[in-house]
Design brief:
The protein is α/β, with parallel strands linked by helices. Helix content is 38%, strand content 27%. The protein has a single domain, classed as 3-Layer(aba) Sandwich (Rossmann fold). The chain contains nine helices and ten strands. Strand 1 and strand 2 form a beta hairpin. It is globular. Magnesium ion binds next to helix 1.
């Protein structure tokens, strides 16, 4: 069954059209990668999926688990299982990381008519997921992302994803700024989450992430459109030839 079905999606910022007719279907359990030149609309697509208010959808449809995603507010989309790991994670001054995660998880559980996690269950889940992603106790005590290095912020995004266990994970340049060891840690964090009911949309500029997390499909986005789709060999082709032939 399709988890996500995007048809003829057009979206604008102000009066500038950025997405110019995106068609993309992602089935449960699949990993899709999007590659494309700077400014082609990859982050715009992520933001539109998450419900960022700066973007206006002017045409097209997005179905998520058969529901009209565009009808849902960003928080409802998150509660339904959409997760966006930002290309540029923001710092939340004054918001403690543990409290932030507890609030987000319990809001989702409330939405799903599940009881909140008690303190013991919460701490256990927090510690095990944090340990796997190299997030220290000291980092958990700090406000979300405040003063974190670029690579630490990316690890924190992956940790949030692992903690919240979303059904659809959008990873916008998760690999940028990561050192070689951190790339492996984050890739392992993604791979353990690969399950038949969970899908991923990974945006990346680099072939090396795709060596660790093997995608089922790669799509090339140029100027607001997907101009080619293929298997993982497409990334190698791009590495050698660049985007010139697709422009
Ligand atoms: N708020 C905005 N106002 C004006 N233009 C915008 C706005 N947001 C995005 N754009 C433009 O939309 C285009 C697509 O941007 P987007 O961030 O989606 O690109 P991208 O494919 O993610 O690029 P990169 O690989 O550099 O991250 C760019 O030309 C960008 O300048
Ligand atoms: Mg981007």
């Amino acid at each position: 069954m399709s988890l996500l079905e995007i048809k003829n999606l057009h979206a604008c910022v102000g009066d500038k059209e950025i997405l110019k007719g995106i068609d993309l279907t992602i089935k449960a359990g699949e990993v899709h990668a999007i590659m494309g030149p700077n400014g082609s609309g990859k982050s715009t697509l992520s933001n539109v999926l998450a419900g960022h208010p700066n973007y206006t959808v002017t045409q097209g449809t997005i179905l998520f688990k058969g529901k009209n995603l565009l009808d849902l507010s960003p928080d409802k989309r998150a509660n339904e299982g959409v997760f966006l790991a930002f290309q540029h994670p923001i710092e939340l001054t004054g918001v403690g990381t543990a409290l932030f995660l507890k609030t987000a998880l319990n809001a989702k559980r409330h939405y799903l008519n599940e009881p909140p996690l008690d303190a013991v269950q919460f701490m256990k889940r927090l510690k095990t997921r944090a340990q796997a992603l190299g997030i220290t106790d000291e980092m958990l005590k700090r406000p979300v992302n405040v003063g974190f290095s670029g690579g630490e912020k990316k690890r924190m995004e992956t940790f949030q994803m692992a903690f919240l266990e979303p059904d659809f994970c959008i990873l916008d340049e998760m690999d940028s700024g990561l050192d070689i060891d951190a790339l492996r840690i984050v890739s392992d964090g993604i791979n353990v989450l690969r399950e038949p009911h969970r899908s991923f949309l990974m945006i990346t500029h680099f072939h090396r992430l795709l060596n660790y997390v093997t995608p089922d499909y790669i799509h090339i986005m140029v100027n607001g459109r997907i101009v080619k789709s293929g298997d993982k060999t497409l990334a190698l082709h791009l590495e050698e030839n660049g985007y010139e032939e697709f422009k």
